[in-house]
Amino acid sequence: MRTPLVAANWKMNGSREFAEQFFAALDLEGLSCAVVICPPYPYLPLVAEKAGEGFSIGAQNLSDETSGAFTGEVSAAMLLDWGVRYAIVGHSERRSLYGESSELVARKFHAAQAAGLVPILCVGESLQEREEERTLEVIASQLQAVTEAAGESAGGDVWSRAVIAYEPVWAIGTGKTATPEQAQEVHRFIRERLGNAGAAVQILYGGSVKAGNAEALFAQADIDGALVGGASLDAEEFSKICRAAG
């Protein structure tokens, strides 16, 4: 039985005051789902102070390097120093705005795992790719990059300590959302693509998730929770999404 998981991606939003107000309003009491909060790097220490209150800490990104002359980068080991447990890799904004290739994303995925973090691997297609009916092809390629980087000897073990988030690029921050049936089709494909490991992997949906559509999405057999963007900046809204997951 997979435990539902809901992750908040604050992106480049927030302040010390915002974080204090957010946690004062956050209500996770009695939930059975796992919750992850992913703030910008400067607020990791503040979030770490609150992490005993029903959630884990996640990072929005990390370097594929362990240390060295890489100005502006943050390593997995540094994140561990602040109690971080999860790290988002391959978010569509990193891929599109900063040119991160699937090969770089795969290296970040394995850097996170090697250090003991749980990577949240984001995969998804653009509107053009969906209209060209290439959704499954694109996602298969993004997953394949991770398995190829691990080498054949890793087998299904590469997915045993990972979370996957399907985020249709055309639905992120647009207010558009894949229908529950559309999302379920892709989630089922991903699970099957993972082979024997697929049954145990948490697969989240990301793409304009709100309290109003969360319950219908989470009712699908292969949707185990959500990676929440804009709605995660509203503590009450985010709490409702978490409650919809369990």
Give helix and strand order, one letter per element, not per position: EHEHEHEHHEHHEHEHEH
**Order of strands side by side in the largest beta sheet?**
7-6-5-4-3-2-1-8
CATH architecture: Alpha-Beta Barrel
Radius of gyration: 17 Å
Mean pLDDT: 94
**Mind telling me the CATH superfamily name?**
Aldolase class I
Total helical elements: 10
Strand elements, count? 8
Distance between the amino and carboxyl termini: 13 Å
> What's the number of structural domains?
1
Structural class: alpha/beta
Which of globular, elongated, flat, extended, rod-shaped describes the shape?
A: globular
Spans where pLDDT lies below 50 across 5 or more residues: none
CATH C-level category: Alpha Beta
Largest sheet, in brief, is: 8 strands, parallel
- Sheet-strand content, in percent, reads 15-25%
- Helix content, binned percent: 25-40%
Tell me the CATH topology.
TIM Barrel
